[in-house]
Amino acid sequence: MNNRDRANAFGPLNFMPIASVISSVYYAIRLLRHREQFDVHHGMSLIAEGVPSEPTGDDRRTALLIVRRIEELEDVPFHRLSKDAADDYIALLSDIVLNRVQEDFGVDPVRGEELLHELRAQATPHPPLVSENNAN
Fold it and tell me: pLDDT, tens digit, for every residue of 28-60?
């Protein structure tokens, strides 16, 4: 399955409020990073015990839907997902959030890079924090 097909599998994230998308995807990514410790089919309490600072109930349910969708796409239990596959989904979900943020807030990464370049060119260098004579 290619990345476009995978991205289409998470299409509903395009229609949710951006705050919910960020929270749900953040939680799903945390679960992906700790996937070997969880069996999502044993319920939310097991997951809640292992990952502090839980999102809202709706965002947690959406994160679990993301996890279950990954299981369907990969045809493997979540806790047995390979590191490479987990990394691919982390990158994919991160891209989905980035795209939504850019669309919803009108973020222009190219213009942002231009502004950073201009600011760096105009910046005055700071004096060293420790003078060379006092370095000993």
Answer: 999 999 888 766 555 444 454 555 566 778 888
Task: Judge contact between 31 and 47, C-beta under 8 A.
Answer: yes
Position 135 in a domain? no
Closest CA to 41 of 72, 73, 81, 78: 78
Amino acid occupying residue 97? V
- Picking from 58, 82, 59, the residue whose alpha carbon sits closest to that of residue 70 is 82
Please say whether the beta carbons of 31 and 51 come within 8 A: yes
| 134 part of a folded domain | no
Total number of domains in the chain: 1
Does the global pTM surpass 0.90? no
Say if 94 falls within a structural domain. Answer: yes
Asked if 61 contacts 102 with a C-beta cutoff of 8 angstroms, the reply is no
The answer to whether residues 81 and 70 touch, using CB atoms and an 8 Å cutoff, is yes
Q: From CA 131, how far away is CA 135, in angstroms rounded?
A: 6
| d(C-alpha 26, C-alpha 31), whole Å | 9
Q: Which two tokens stand for residue 47?
A: 């997951």
